[in-house]
Amino acid sequence: MTSEPAIESVMPGFSIPGGEVLILCRGFGPEDAGGLICEIGGTEARIVGVSSARVLALVPEDAQWGDVEVVLRSADSTASARIVVGRKLAGDLHQVANPAVDPKDGSIVLTRSGSRGQELPVTLFRLDPDGFLSEMPAVVMNPTGVAFDPHGRLVVSNRADGEVVQINNDSEIVPLAGDLGVATGVAFDETGDMFVGDRSGTVYRIGTLRSAETWAVMEPSVSAYHLAFGPDGALFVSAPGLCSHDVIYRIDREGSVEIFYKGLGRPQGLAFDVDGNLYVAACLKGRHGIVKIAFDGSSAEVFVAGMGLVGLCFTSAGTLIAATGDAVYGIEVGKEGLLPGD
């Protein structure tokens, strides 16, 4: 007896437009596979793989955002389920690392980085909670890592000149440290010390007197070092390479390096949630998106589907901000999530 057509699950349950989702279904016969139509968020989705029990589809660029319906339809059967699709918040950017949330007002700092050494008229932007995107008067060549220190001051790394600067009132540029190689990721520990990743293989520690010292040395990266402090006070680092088994490093307070997780393709920006789980823009077992790694490194899964993701951050309300090379999206991953402009 043939079971009633149904979608058993959609994995992952979150996506941005262009993301690849796996739909597990039942009740569709082999004869239906070639004629299946998939709709996501009210728009027909491109099917890139299909059988009577599995459908691999791309979330359409013009799909509705939010909690949307996924529909499978054959000549005489229909089934549906739901996923959450992220909303595009801004475009025409050039992000190469995590965006950053201003702790003072909840606005999000974004970049238009450009190629190394390229001078652009506008390189930094602020996305206000009301959804308005404004240009910052301060112009930093090739802004790469952006972060806020414990006092709420914005700092930006410049990979062209190997320096880190502080931005005051979105306009004044104050040099903090230089001679940092190809400076990329930036993070602060609980004492206020700043850590900067040099893609050639060094993590520098910069104290309150702005003197830089080599703190840890790892393998060089093909694009950047991305940094985030975990709830245990250790620094977590991704250094994307050219294989599918790249690692996330954990560096303890004394600067000792160990492998926290291995098996990612080109891991880039990373961030922690309030429960201590680590999220990384990466590829896992051929699936692209944001990978969620358990706090102890024991398991990993693709949490958000998406192509070209380079970074992420969480707002205080729990909304996940996901950045591709040219756009940022807001994804309501928690019940209290509010997107800019809502």
The CATH class of the largest domain is identified as Mainly Beta
Low-confidence stretches: none
Strand content: over 45%
Level-2 CATH architecture of the largest domain = 7 Propeller
- Report the biggest beta sheet as strand number plus sense, adding barrel if it closes: 13 strands, mixed
Which class do the helix and strand fractions yield? mainly beta
Per DSSP, the total helix count is 0
Shape: elongated
Helix content, binned percent: under 10%
Secondary-structure map:
Blueprint: E1 6-11, E2 14-15, E3 20-26, E4 37-40, E5 43-44, E6 46-50, E7 54-58, E8 66-73, E9 78-85, E10 87-90, E11 100-101, E12 108-111, E13 124-127, E14 133-135, E15 143-148, E16 154-158, E17 163-168, E18 172-177, E19 183-188, E20 194-198, E21 202-206, E22 212-217, E23 226-229, E24 235-238, E25 246-251, E26 257-265, E27 270-272, E28 278-284, E29 287-293, E30 300-305, E31 309-314, E32 320-324, E33 328-331
Report on the architecture of this protein.
By secondary structure, the chain is mainly β. The chain folds into two domains: 6-85, Immunoglobulin-like (Sandwich), CATH 2.60.40; 88-331, YVTN repeat-like/Quinoprotein amine dehydrogenase (Methylamine Dehydrogenase, Chain H), CATH 2.130.10.10. The protein is built from no helices and 33 strands. The strands form six sheets. Strands 2, 4, 5, 8, 9, 23, 24, 25, 26, 27, 28, 29 and 30 form a 13-stranded mixed β-sheet that branches. β24 and β25 form a beta hairpin. It is elongated and about 70 Å long. It starts with 5 loop residues before the first strand and ends in an 11-residue tail after the last strand. The mean pLDDT is 92.
